[in-house]
């Protein structure tokens, strides 16, 4: 079993921090958080300074050019053997007409010296951006202590409701042989009790992810009986097929460039109410992406309005969907696996 990605609901604050960028002073908080994470991972001083500078540029760019901008910093231990600092920014628009130009040093979109995005791209080990006019923008950058190149096969995001520091949503994905198993759980309600339920669901799957999704959902249902319960979706990919089982309102999608196919979940609450648990199989083509998300994202997002998104890094896809469809009045989680 090879862990591919995970985000528990009770992530330590020092390992994950969302910061709303609503005024210029937010850049200082972002810089301090970046420096603390780089220090925790033992980054050399010069490299830590680069991370702090790149994060400051990202925060400044959000304040100058975006609406409702948020910045995430987290320590990611799943992408490579050495942990990295991961930067994600999302906003609600207005979007960019020319992403390539925006990533060049000296490019400006608001009458100011537009060095920010180009500087981030130069200092990061990985940097990618997706934006189209009229939609939210997602930026992802990864920084290792020393130069490292590593592609992510799957990734995701969780964001707690505005009034909480702890999310009630969680996800994980693991590979066993040629099979990848992904799970996302939305603990009922918010706060520590919801987080406990979501984390228990993840542990139930990870202890043995080989059985088919319906069997795994049944196991989660039994294990959550002593918690407040939640909604769960479990997907397995192997070759040109995807197997999915869901209990409750975790949404499952297969997306290609310009189209999406919904995967069927049955009504219920894992741990408390499950009249029937069913599994469904769907064909999947090379290059498609499989998306699971909680109801902290509206299901009304339109992949047809986001051309080329499916070809991006999984974390970029997750960031754009959260930017475009995220609901601040609820915990939110999204997991993306590439086929």
Write a brief caption for the model.
The chain has 339 residues and is an alpha+beta fold. The chain is built from seven helices and 16 strands.
Average pLDDT over all residues: 90
Shape: globular
Q: How many helix segments?
A: 7
For the record, the count of structural domains works out to: 2
**What do we call the CATH homologous superfamily of the largest domain?**
PPM-type phosphatase domain
Topology as a string of helices (H) and strands (E): EEHHEEHHEEEEEHHEEEEEEHE
Instruction: Name the strands of the widest sheet in spatial order.
Output: 1-8-9-10-11-14
Q: What Rg is obtained from the alpha carbons, in whole angstroms? A: 19 Å
- Given the helix and strand composition, which structural class is it? alpha+beta
- N-C termini distance: 18 Å
Uncertain spans: 107-114
Under the CATH scheme, which class of the largest domain?
Answer: Alpha Beta
CATH architecture label of the largest domain: 4-Layer Sandwich
CATH-assigned fold name of the largest domain: Phosphatase 2c, domain 1
Main sheet: strands, sense, barrel: 6 strands, antiparallel
Strand residues, percent: 25-35%
E-strand count: 16
Helix content: 25-40%
Which features does this protein show?
Heat Shock Protein 90; 6-stranded antiparallel β-sheet; alpha+beta; single chain; 5-stranded antiparallel β-sheet
Structure overview:
With 339 residues, this protein is of the alpha+beta class. The protein has two domains: 10-143, Heat Shock Protein 90; 154-338, PPM-type phosphatase domain (Phosphatase 2c, domain 1, 4-Layer Sandwich). The chain is 26% helix and 31% strand. The chain is built from seven helices and 16 strands. It has helices spanning 26-40, 45-65, 99-102, 116-123, 191-206, 213-223, 314-325; strands spanning 2-7, 16-21, 69-76, 84-90, 126-130, 138-143, 154-159, 169-176, 179-187, 230-238, 241-247, 251-256, 259-263, 280-283, 289-293, 332-338. The strands form three sheets. A six-stranded antiparallel beta sheet has the order 1-8-9-10-11-14, with helices on one face. A hairpin with a 7-residue loop joins strand 5 (126-130) and strand 6. Helix 5 crosses helix 6 (213-223). The chain is globular. It starts with a strand and ends with a strand. Mean pLDDT is 90; it is low at 107-114.
